[in-house]
Amino acid sequence: MHLHRRRLLLSGAALAAALGLPGGEARAAASAKGLTVVYISARNCPICREWNATKRDAFAARCAARGVPFRVVEVASFGDIRVAAEWPDDLRPLLAQFSDKGGTPRFLLVDNGKVVGNVLGALTWREDRAAPGN
After folding, report:
1. What fold does the segment set 2-129 form as a domain?
2. H or E stretch at 64
3. Residue ranges of the domains in the chain?
4. CB atoms near residue 25 (< 10 Å)
5. Which one, out of 54, 91, 119, 122, has a CA that is 20 to 30 A from the CA of 129?
6. Which residue positions does the secretion signal occupy (predicted)?
7. Cis peptide before 105, with omega less than 30 degrees from 0?
């Protein structure tokens, strides 16, 4: 139990670093290599549509400026994000690494092919800290 809790805390810290959450700045600078942010959006998600229209381009640009790839997976329904056919071939192995069935917008932090963070919601971080190293 203690090991599982520690792993969860470390995953949260890694995602905080990549997304620029408070307390994550040092880790972001130290671990940007090998990181990728995977954004899961759904066509039937009004929050996703709003975020895509108003924030996505700026977020992707901040990621790119810090050398962190920003990948997008767009699924049909926020209620089922696990339809493998809707995922790019190279990202499908990530499905085996997290158990959430639904919920968008969702951000996965992937470190060298391994999911190390998983955040649901577009309001999880402040707008001025919405990208790796910011």
Report:
1. Glutaredoxin (3.40.30)
2. helix 56-65
3. 2-129
4. 15
5. 91
6. 1-28
7. yes
